[in-house]
Amino acid sequence: MSVVAGSISNVAATLLKFSPTAWIKSWLLYVGIQTHVRGTIDPELKPLHNVCEYLNALHIYTDEARRGEVRTVESYHFCSHVRKDLRQCLIYDSCKPDARLIGVEYMIPKSKYLELPEEEQKLWHSHEFEVQSGMLVLPTPETHRGQADKWEKLETQALSEVVGLYGKIFHFWQVDRGDELPFGMPRLMGSLTEFKQLNVDEALKDRDERFGVSVQHKREVRQGIEGPGIPENADSWWKEAKKQKLDSTSSSTTNVQHDVADDQGDLEKQEQGERARSQAKDDRIKVEWDDDDPLNPYNWKFAFKCWVTLQLGILALAPSFGSSVISPAGPAIARNLGVGEEVTVLNVSLYVLGFALGPCLWAPISEVWGRKISMLPPLFCLGLFSIGTAVSTTPASVFITRFFGGVFGSAPISNVSAALGDFWSREARGTAMSFYAICVVGGPTIAPIVGAALTEKLSWHWTEYVEAIFVFSVFALTIVCFPEVYPPVLLKRKAQKLRKETGDNRYYHPHEDLKIDLKSIVTKELSRPLLMLVTEPMVMTIAFYASFVYGVLYMTLEVFPIVFQQNHDLTLIEASASFLGLFIGVLFALVINLGNQPRYIRKVRESNGKPVPEARLPPMAIGGVVFTIGLFCFGWTGTRNISVWAPLTFTLLIGAGFNSIFQQCINFLVDTYGLYAASATAANTFLRSLMAYGLPLAVRPMFAALGVGPGMSVLGAVAAVAIPVPFLFMKYGHNLRQRSRFTPVDKE
Length: 748
Known about the structure:
elongated; 6-stranded antiparallel β-barrel; single chain; alpha+beta; 4 domains
């Protein structure tokens, strides 16, 4: 091969001298380089062909561990068997094509380890805790997608060998601290040896989501894997850390220098106690759902599920109602507080801006403490801030209370969709989500009618008083009737109840150890959603489409008064009644969305229960066309010389198109991104809230400069450009999902 490649390379180099054109020269140069490089490298790739294992685990810096500090690095091992008693691993910071080589590890069996000099033995670490804790995994390869049980057996078998090996690791690139190059000398690395050194479950939470595994489940499966015992000199850094801690404690309490024998005895006692505690931890009984367990939300009766869904819908309706109930009061607020009408648009915009920031807090709370506590206390706070707005006497106090009302009001809106998934199956969830969407988008369309009547008959203050009354009424109902639906929290309570009833403290559930973690909040709720928004074409496109139509919905709060009050001389209440057209259109969309459910269920069953995101898109395709027609026709019939019934009719198309698009965008993201659905929908929530914040602010300047027809045509043009989106994803969606690092999809 190398002879042939070399000959081709030489011929190409010779022909370059006589090539008449630059492009031929370039092509010949490419051929020459490719054949030469491939010909000389291929034989040297043989060592890499010997790689037979792909492992993932955490490494720690041993010099810091000696001081009792823990700094971890997630490491991707590509290991080969050099000989029977030696394995070597190349360690990378990821498994992507541009992964950086950050270290190496060598593994030997215990018999070989015991032959090493004493000082050399202190440089090696054991693998017992790595294997038994579930920290070390062999990620499922593409060849075994959909065969998790089969792969897990192979993994367990492989790790039964690894548990008896001892490793020596050097890292020469500290990517975890952001080094752009491998600075300084190599660092000796090690591993963890017990749970108290690090909250392993929390540290591996992100890794588990990426690979679709559970460290707790791995721990259970590997209970039968026993190690050969850890020699005295292995994991020396942890023993030194314990000894230093013991010396420091003894010195501070007694101020007496103990001899070495006493220290060693105390150290052995401490280790014995730790082993006993570790054994007790291994003997724990993990609480799971029993067959037909009545506590399991999936086993609730259909009627009760409907009752809970109704409560969730009302929970979402209350804050969405509050977003626009104050919009008709803009002129009254301007007169009362002495500001321009264009400034009062902030009453709605700042409230919706709070929707963008609130989920960063409420989503983690719901995952740790449950859905009920993440929604009801914030809802109560929304009621308080609504009263605060009602009694405000300055523009600043109105805007501040509205913003924080949005922050707290976002809790039900952001968590209700997740709560529905806690007790409805995937096949039934689409129907439940349809009724939930009616509440979310119905609030902003009905509220202006109520707000107009209150403003005209009483005063603008009553728009917020009524919102507070509504919120407190919903709070009173749900605090009594709404059950917790989040399964991990229910299992935690079940474990606590079993311990109390039986007196057996071995009953536990991993959720009991879960805590609110700032790092997790930053990663899951901020950095990862933003990363997906800018790097994932599907998230970027779908989020923009959903955000655009959501922003248009809130633009109507400013556009409708221009069309129906200024152009058609209707009263405040009459003009606000036009929002009924939007709401009726939203209800029509329910027929479109539910009409697609039988087809979607059929597609899911054909794929053996796996989600089929592309099957969600036909209603979006219909909605895109209807929405675009509605925008253009509404704009060009909204003039004074055309009957008011014409633009009113086309509000139905806007409402129907909006809901068809918006709901299927959410469903598509959830189906596509699986474990990362929360991050994908968070990216959508963030962008749509920014759109709903900014677009209403542009209405008055844009329509004053362009007029209603051209202004709506600008929006219609954007909507028209987006019409092909569902069709493109129906055709190319599966290929895009295969290329994404966040989507769990089989390579077909």
